[in-house]
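User: Run a structure prediction on this.
Assistant: Running it now.
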Amino acid sequence: MDLFDSQGIDDAGVPAFSERAPLAVRMRPRSLDEVVGQDHLLGEGAPLRRLLEPAQVGRPAVSSVILWGPPGTGKTTLAYLVARASGRHFDELSAVSAGVKDIREVVGAAKRRMGATSEETVLFVDEVHRFSKSQQDALLPAVENRWVTLVAATTENPSFSVISPLLSRSLLLTLDPLESDEIATLLERALTDERGLGGEYGLTDGARDALVRLAGSDARKSLTLLEAAAGATAEKNATTIDVPEVEAAANQALVRWDKDQHYDVASAFIKSMRGSDVDAAIHYLARMIEAGEDPRFIARRVMICAAEDVGMAAPEVLATTVAAAQAIAMIGMPEARIILAEAVVAVATAPKSNASYMAIDTALADLRAGKGGPVPTHLRDAHYAGATTLGHGEGYIYAHDAPHNVAAQQYLPDDLVGTRYYAPTENGTEAMITKRLAVLRDLLDMR
C-alpha cells in the first residue's frame, strides 16, 4: 500500500505511514508528550497510563478499556501509543469489516504467543459499537482470561451499544472534546513539523480562527481542512493560507465571525428565545452553526435560557434541553443542528417565567446584606447525643401528621418571617402553582 512505508508496520505492529498518507495520519502523536488534551486519563496511576508502561512480569495485570468520546479526540492515537510504549504485541480489528472468524483468529494467535513467549497482546477494536452481539460475545473469553488486553473505541454511549458482560469486564474511559486552544496547538504543530507541512506555509490569524471554528473539537477534521487549504494555497502559487483558502477547503463561504460577532449574535439568540420570537431564534442559531460555533456552547446557552426564562412555567423544557445537549455530545455535527433547532423551538415557544431566578437572587441578596438569623430551634438536627438537652427539635411538627400534610410552624429565621421570595406568574404550569401556593401559604400562616 502506498500509505505505508516499505516495511508496512513498525516494531510494535503498528502501521508506519509514508509521506503520502493524509496529514492527520502523518501527524498522529508518536509519544505521550505529543498528545494534546485528555490529561484526566494520563495522570500517574491512571489505567491508561499503566497501559502505556512496559509490560513486566509480576506487575498487576492491566484491565481492558473502552474509550468513549466524540470523533477526532484521540481514541485511535491512544491505542497506537499503548502498543508502541508498552512493548506488547498489537493487533487491530475494524468493527466495520471484521467478523467472528477474524476475532477468533486474532485471539487464537494471542493465546499461542502468550504460551510460547509470554508476550502480551493489545487488541484494538475501532468503532466497537458496530459489532453485533455475537461478535462482542466472541471477545468475552479473551477479555475474561486476559489472553488479550482489549482497547475498544466508540463514539456512541457504551451503555447502549456494548453488551453488559463486556462492559463489566472493562474500564470505561471518557475522552473530553478538545478545546479551541488545543486544536490551535495541533494546527501550529502541523505547519512546522517535518511530518506535516514542514514550514512551507504560513497561516493568517483569520484563517487559523476559521479552521478552529470549522473543526469544532475534532482534531482529525482540523488537520484535514488545513491540508486542503494548503493545497488551495499552492494552486495560487502562494505560501500564506488565508480565509479564502479555508473557504475553498471547506466548500463554504464563512460568515464573518470575530469576537464581537460571537457575543452579539449569542446575545440576540438568547433575547429572541426569551422574547418568544421563534423565527428570530432559529435565524441566530443558523448564523452560529454556519459560522462554525461550537454546538456545545450553543446547547449551554439554550439550557440556561430554559432555566432562567422558562422556569416553572414549563419545567419540562429544561429536561428537553438537557437531553438535547447529551444527544449533541453523542452525535455531533451536522446532525446536531436538528437537535439544537428542536431545543430552541421548545424554549422559544414555551410560556415564560423568571420567578425562580428572581427568588434565588433575592434570597442571596438578603444573605449578603446580613439577613438570616439562626435556624429556629425546633428545626435543628436532633439526631446526635446531647441535642435534646439543647432543645433541638422540641416542638417540631411532622408534616405528615398535620392536616393536608402541611404543618403550620415557623420555618424561616426570626428576622425573615413573612418574607416572600417566590412570586409565581399566571403563565403555563406556573398558573397552577400560583393557586396551590396561595393555599399553602394560607395553611402555613400562623397569625
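The two ends are 88 Å apart (CA to CA).
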